[in-house]
Write the structure tokens for this entry.
Amino acid sequence: MVKVLLWGTLRSAADGQAEVEVEAGTFKELLDELASRYPGLEPQIRRGVSLALDGKIYREAWFTEIGPDSEVVLMPYMTGG
Amino acid sequence: MALDAYQKREFKQVGTRPNRPDGVDKVTGRAMYGADATAPGMLHAKILRSPHAHARIVSIDTSAAEALAGVKAIVTAADFGVPEDDFLRDVQDHCMARGKVLYDGHAVAAVAATTIAAAKAALKLIKVEYETLPHVTDVDAAMKPGAPVVQAGRAYENVPAGMSENVTHHCEFGHGDLDAGFAKADRVVERHFKTAATHQGYIEPNACLASVTSDGKAELWVCTQGQYFYRTLCAALLGMEASQLRVTASEIGGGFGGKTMIYMEPVALALSKKAGRPVKLVLTRDEVFRATGPTVSSSMDVKIGMTKDGRITAAQARLCYSGGAFPNTTVDMGAQAAFAAYDLDAVQTLGWNVMTNRPKESAYRAPGAPLSIYAVESVVDELCQHFGLDPLAVRLLNAADKGTKSSYGPTFDQIGLKATLEAAQAHPHYTAPLGPNQGRGLSCGFWFNFGGNTCVSLNVNTDGTVGVTEGNPDIGGSRASISLMAAEELGIPYEKIRTIVADTSSLGYNDVTDGSRVTFAVGLATIKAARDAIRKMCSRAAKIWGIDEEAVEWVDGAAVPAGPNAGKFPPMTLAEIAAVSAETGGPIAGHYEVNADGAGVSFGVHLCDIEVDPETGATKVLRYTVFQDAGKAVHPSYVEGQMQGGAVQGIGWALNEEYIYGTDGRLQNAGFLDYRIPVASDLPMIDTVILEIPNPGHPYGVRGVGETGIVPPLAAIANAVSRAVGVRMTELPMSPPKLLKALEAKG
């Protein structure tokens, strides 16, 4: 199981939890599982999210492997200028 | 260790300052910018724009204009479809109003004619009947109940019920117990801040040349930060296949994020398709201000608690950003960045995006971050003043470091904030004496940086030179930096390498030049492409010598036997291997494609001295020093240029630049005479101190440097001015009238 930290506005879509546990070995599995278990997260996931894995931010990286003790943080999709 | 991870090495060429390869063209006027493109039979286009801030388009009659001699095509929204995708529909509606105009300057029709004069004359003959609607241009006013609704039904699911329909997005970040944190403070300060929208202020106006042929193929030559993204958007809006639209990026006279989005390019393509001839479209400066860019405007509240010895106990920010007449999420970035420099037990940032009758916001260096950090750093400075504490020491005491749980969620790995603060503390600028009416200010800054989709091809020519093909417009000297990294890896002189920027048909997809990504991501791909070519050259040498490939290694630009057991052969240089490439298997090239991650966050600290004239309210910047972590400065001159450019743009934002709207909702200062950007004579030399704390995610330790530099100046200048005049300034820009008013109120 992987613990995923959600930012504040997503918590209402995840039964008020700041952190949820999902069964996932990669980012793709994690996003699919989150959208499936918490349909309220699906609009934001569709608009775009980034994921921080042990402090390193990924914008798109479906097959990035997640270790069971990794820190995983869901973040809005990064944009820049 | 993975080859794309940082490996310590002694650099031979990276870190030097050779001449930029595009320098001669640029100083002799040969460089081809957006408006320099021409084509046989070319028409000229002009756009008719709304004189109203908000109005329903009742009808558009183009018949008289069409009858004018020289007019070859006219388009309106009726010539485009209606994209199902919200984002694409907004992009298109921004390029050409559909149903109603949403801001002063919104495009309603466009004409292509044989001359510019004919196109202008035709615009006057187009009859548009408007039904004007109430408008709102202020972010606070737009949030109030009963405010004019810019667009109905656009709120995301995250917006709490009961808010104005203009509020389209809400976000929240943070951790810890705020109430408990504030209770521990010896003083809590809460302040309200407002900042005006500014423009990226690029000197080259947006320009393009579009050519659509009768068989459905099209070419677009355009001034852009991202030819591939422009292709994606334009092809989608015109119903074309990507392969049929080739987009070539011109040289670029500034972008700063503003040229990451299309504004009129689909209009030029549609006109060309209708007229059957190439169409050139160059915006005037007035149009650039009224219909491209600008940044978000903001209304912000920040509350921070601090103990008397300078420890921050809790921090909260409420940010309301307006990105004009369309939904956007820039406030996400501002909210995440606001407290990133601090190690906090209790922190919360709330953000809202609000629609107003202004042009659609575009990115501007570190979008969203300068505003929120301005507000936060101002309150930190006020608390330092109250307790009589050294503002640098307080920032060091509270600074985020490796292992800190950031205010936006992740735990920081290696970061350079403390080292940057210590460099500022040790610099003679920090203790230099100040005179009357002078003040010193400082601020931390932060930006995320990212990598993104990147392709590079590296071709070894038979004469021993090398061509590098990359897909990102060079907006800050990247061709020099890419050439330097290729030269370093290959072990050949910088002068032997020529780097070019490919069109969309010549190389795979590359993300836009944004996010401070190019030196990091294209550099990484170039190093990997060079390593690919090196493997092939070692293979050729092995064949020539009759030994195993594994028994050959690359040293100082040549293949050599790897140890005494491999045999005794003299080194074969790149030029010697290239010269016989036809005989040994054909052309030699290296390639690499990646969606790069691991860019590594960036911190900077700015220190400035200013003097305020109490009679006029004018502020003069006396001294300015930028401290920033570059990971590894590939070409230090261009790193310094990014740091200086960011500082100067931030100084303009702090002191003078603003979109000024009248009560009629029309922009009143759409030109450089009335929209005052700093020029060289306004400024001192911007001093720079580059720190090099290697980024573990890049082979040479490189971090992006393009955006962080614009983040601290707003607060650094505001803190200096506030200390100089003895009044906390909470509104940007701090233009002379506002400063005089503050001085008069102080008495």
Notes: The longest strand of chain B covers residues 312-322. The mean pLDDT of chain B is 97. Chain B touches chain A through 50 residues (CB under 8 Å). The two ends of chain B are 65 Å apart (CA to CA).
